[in-house]
Amino acid sequence: MDIVFIEKIEVATVIGVYDWEKTISQCLTLDLQMAWDNRLAAENDDISKALDYAKVAEAVEQFAANSRFELVETFAERLAALLMQQFGIVWIKLKVTKPGAVATAKGVGVEIERGCR
Ligand SMILES: Nc1nc2c(c(=O)[nH]1)N=C([C@H](O)[C@@H](O)CO)CN2
Question: Closest Cα to atom 15, ligand 1: which residue?
Fold first, then answer.
């Protein structure tokens, strides 16, 4: 299977376990790898056969804007499930980074892999 990827997309969302985090919007950085057979799209030079990364990015931004979770784990799990269902993705690897959450680290977060390649 081939991969369609989106690197370091920055989204705003309400996320965090502490009370002060529930009243503000914070930035998350996401890296996505999605399995897709690119041959049909390439053969016909046809976007309708491709996994349109612009449409995926739009869905990611919309999901983040409308979600409110405590854990990055929950954010990752729900987003992965949504994208797999909405776009017919059979395998996804998703890294969610919360920059600045730990003062001494550049970023912290989770990486999950769901489905089969
Ligand atoms: N495994 C996790 N640990 C922590 C999370 C999380 O989402 N997953 N969240 C926090 C706080 O919200 C923190 O990011 C605030 O700075 C702490 N640990």
Answer: 101
